[in-house]
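Hi C.,

You asked whether I'd gotten around to modeling the 103-residue construct. I have! Everything is below, sequence then structure, no commentary in between.
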Amino acid sequence: MSKQDWKLFLSDSKSKIEFACSVLFLFIVLLAFTQFLNYVEMRDGFVFNDPILSCFPAVDVTWFTFATIYFSLIFAIYYFSKRPNLLLLALQAFGIMVLFRMA
């Protein structure tokens, strides 16, 4: 079923153009986002002294966060690989979300 969906999706020239433009848009937005993050990292900030937060011990959730993000990414790639229309929508939505994060 997946191959048929992709064949049908790629047989339409409008879909091919929209997919290529979406990938290009996402690529440009992600390049701009890296520059934006470099700019933000170089700015001077301040340390917020939170009296309530200081009552709790620090907890390292690095591996939990890493596992959650990458499990979600692998699941999304698997899920969207069988649904080209949803993959297109997901690429566009992600690009717009990253663009709004820079605003």
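If it helps when you're writing up: The two ends are 40 Å apart (CA to CA).

Thanks,
B.
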